[in-house]
């Protein structure tokens, strides 16, 4: 998917379209939407989220990614997926602030 809609907060009321990448079958998002601090804080406070894509919803837990090798792989994935088509927003995904707001979305078992 190009992007997902991430539903956060109590009752999953706030929905935010979010570009997504997959690295080794793990789904990652970087919070770059304005203002990024709000969504980042919401994910920290309410890590149980709903991922909406192609008309379906899947439960997941947002986990802040801090592993340096995983963050480097996510950098590469954003460069590969979005760089050629979106040269303007692309640097925002690689900015230090965005890298610090990288979340892995662990899908709940069915």
What report would you give on this structure?
With 110 residues, the chain is an alpha+beta fold. It is 32% helix and 38% strand. It has four helices and six strands. It has helices at 36-45, 68-82, 90-94, 96-100; strands spanning 3-8, 14-23, 26-30, 48-53, 56-64, 102-107. A six-stranded antiparallel beta barrel has the order 1-2-3-6-5-4. The longest helix is centred in the last third of the chain and has 15 residues, at 68-82. It is globular, with a radius of gyration of 13 Å. The model has no long low-confidence stretch (mean pLDDT 83).
Which key phrases capture this entry?
110 residues; alpha+beta; 4 helices; 6 strands; 32% helix; 38% strand; globular
Secondary structure blueprint with pairings:
Layout: E1 3-8, E2 14-23, E3 26-30, H1 36-45, E4 48-53, E5 56-64, H2 68-82, H3 90-94, H4 96-100, E6 102-107
Antiparallel strand pairs: 1-2, 1-4, 2-3, 3-6, 4-5, 5-6
Number of strands: 6
Average pLDDT confidence is 83
Per DSSP, what share of the residues sits in E-state strands of 2 or more residues? 35-45%
One letter per element, helices H and strands E, the order comes to: EEEHEEHHHE
Q: Please work out how many helical segments DSSP would assign.
A: 4
Determine the structural class based on helices, strands and strand pairing.
alpha+beta
Instruction: Catalogue the unreliable spans.
Output: none
**Structural shape:** globular
The description of the largest β-sheet is:
6 strands, antiparallel, barrel
Strand order of the largest sheet: 1-2-3-6-5-4
From the N-terminal CA to the C-terminal CA, the straight-line distance is: 20 Å
> What Rg do the Cα atoms give?
13 Å
Helix content: 25-40%
